[in-house]
């Protein structure tokens, strides 16, 4: 079966999450993604946990379906080898600090000179331009500067970061989206282009209607925790053995909720309208929290869903792994990690009738050196051996 990105070769210079995750998304759709690491230790993420039998599961989480090569990019001969690969490729992804690739001799202008069709995607914390461009940034910094920390948590808790590396992952998705658009545009123009993606920009784009509301009305959003600030009742509720989220803000749904809960206090006329429920949200939610506290999570979900109200148990890892829906959707998949055995990872959320995603494990350090250098660059066995002996690969 022809895959959507079959025939597209990507050089992945990424480290940690954002760039490798972007490369993995492209690899899932059939691109030949070649992960370039330093000889010996590989990328820095290989020393990070979690571990199984002493093997890191960090890099395998973000690098499936790729080929792995090693190149010493601190040597002129290594840079030339990298350029030779880029000359035969379509896309380069990197997330070095701004200015680094220029010092290495692989800036967009350098690469464009040897391959006018090349698409270079650079990921950084603040972007390649602006007064903060050279500032270092990791995921929490991007969440903070991009405004996400200002709306998370509650009034009492203060800022709370997302429970996952949302900035890194979002940036990887945006970058993959931009690369696909650049590939389509290249079909029309014959030319590649430079893509500059900032983690902070990606977080700002996620700020819902808060930007428009502040611009139009000067409203600074307050932290509202799990509640919906414009609809009620809608919250995350504590039960006897877990948590349940519920949204019953529409008038019709609220009428259904009243029948399920059976609490006469919910019949108060001040709760009849949508705005009335938002205005008296604190009181209303207090009554509902009492109802949830008297039930298990599954009991509450069953009563609500069967009665026509949107609700769901909050899935922790044990519930996630046990979920029949997760199994049916193949949202979790097993792949080998050399030295650790079979491990479970997140599967692709893309379900496409003409392009089903298949899975191969993340490459070992330099696993495909001989294959890539021979097939892509035509290097002989003797030439490859000489590069290895000199520490270039």
Detailed description of the structure:
By secondary structure, the chain is of the alpha/beta class. It folds into two domains: about 10-205 and about 330-390, Rossmann fold (3-Layer(aba) Sandwich); about 235-320, formyl-coa transferase, domain 3. It has helices spanning about 20-30, 60, 75-85, 100-105, 110-115, 140-145, 165-190, 200-205, 210-215, 250-260, 275-280, 280-295, 295-305, 315-320, 325-330, 370-375, 380-390, and strands at about 10, 30-35, 50, 55, 65-70, 90-95, 120-125, 195-200, 235-240, 245, 310-315, 330-335, 340-345. The chain contains 17 helices and 13 strands.
Brief descriptors of the model:
393 residues, alpha/beta, Rossmann fold, formyl-coa transferase, domain 3, 2 domains, 6-stranded parallel beta sheet, 3-stranded antiparallel beta sheet, 39% helix
